[in-house]
Amino acid sequence: MKTLTPLFLSSVLLLGLTACDTARTSNSSPDTATQPESNLKEPVAQKNQNDATSELRRRQLNSDIRAREQRNDATGDDAIRADGDLQSEVRSKLEANLPQSELTITAEEGTVTIAGTVVDDQQLRKIEPLAKQIKGVRAVTVKANVASHAQPDEPPAADSKEVTETHTN
C-alpha cells in the first residue's frame, strides 16, 4: 500500500496540472490569452487547416463537445459550466469553423477570452458569435489579430454536410 500512495498522489497532481492547461486551437497558438500576437505564417495556417478539416478531427471535436454537454446535463444546471469545459468547447467550435487560426481560449465564470491570429477579417468577426453558441458562455472578449498574408489555399470539399454539429444555448 505504501508504494501505491505516492503513485496515486503523483497521478492526481499530473491530472490537475493537465486540466489547468490553456485551450488552444493549434500547437503554435499563443501560450496565454493575454498574448494576442502570434507569428502565423501561410505554411502553419495550411497545416492547421488540413488538421482541423480532416474527417477524423471533426468527429473528435464533435465527440468532445457532445461528451461535455452530456456531462453537464447530468449535473443539472445548464447556466453553470466548469471553466475547463467552456474552454474546451469553445476551442473545438473555433478549431472546426476557423481551421487556419491560431487561437488561445481562457474562461472564467462564463466570460471567455480569445486571443491569437486569424487569416482574414471575416474570421475575426465570426469568433464572438461562434463562442456564444456554447452553453454557459455569458460574455466574449476577443483579442485576436488578422494576418492576411497567412491565407492558405481553400481546403477540398468536405464529405460531411456541416463542419460541426450545432451546439447552441
From TrEMBL:
List the InterPro entries hit by this protein, alphabetically: BON_dom (IPR007055)
Pfam families assigned to the protein according to its UniProt record, in alphabetical order? BON (PF04972)
Record's signal peptide: 1-19
Q: Where is the composition biased (Basic and acidic residues)?
A: 65-83, 159-169
Keywords recorded for this protein, A-Z: Signal
Q: Where is this region: Disordered?
A: 24-83, 146-169
Q: What spans are recorded as compositionally biased (Polar residues)? A: 24-38
Q: Where is the BON domain?
A: 82-148
Q: What is this protein called?
A: BON domain-containing protein
